[in-house]
């Protein structure tokens, strides 16, 4: 049984338990990497998409650690994730 895993938080389905692997920033906004890290998106941290906007590339409501944030799709694409095993 093979399940397709999301490569970024932007493509993750709501409710799936994930782990942050890496945070990177687009060339046009290099400050996003430090901003996302400051919010708690750090390698090894638990993260989960709680809700998605109506459009496929809309905003996401995500929980990282004990905090909840709204992220734009482009910001969520900067966060590489893998499924949690717990």
From TrEMBL:
Keywords, sorted A to Z: Iron
Domain Ferrous iron transporter FeoA-like positions: 7-83
The protein's name in its UniProt record: Ferrous iron transport protein A
Keyword flag Iron: yes
């Amino acid at each position: 049984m093979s399940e397709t895993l999301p490569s970024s938080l932007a493509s993750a389905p709501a409710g799936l338990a994930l782990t942050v692997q890496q945070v990177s920033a687009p060339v046009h906004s290099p400050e996003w990497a430090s901003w996302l890290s400051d919010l708690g998106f750090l390698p090894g941290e638990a993260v989960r998409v709680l809700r998605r906007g109506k459009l496929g590339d809309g905003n996401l409501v995500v929980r990282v650690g004990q905090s909840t944030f709204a992220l734009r799709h482009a910001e969520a694409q900067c966060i590489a994730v893998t499924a949690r095993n717990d």
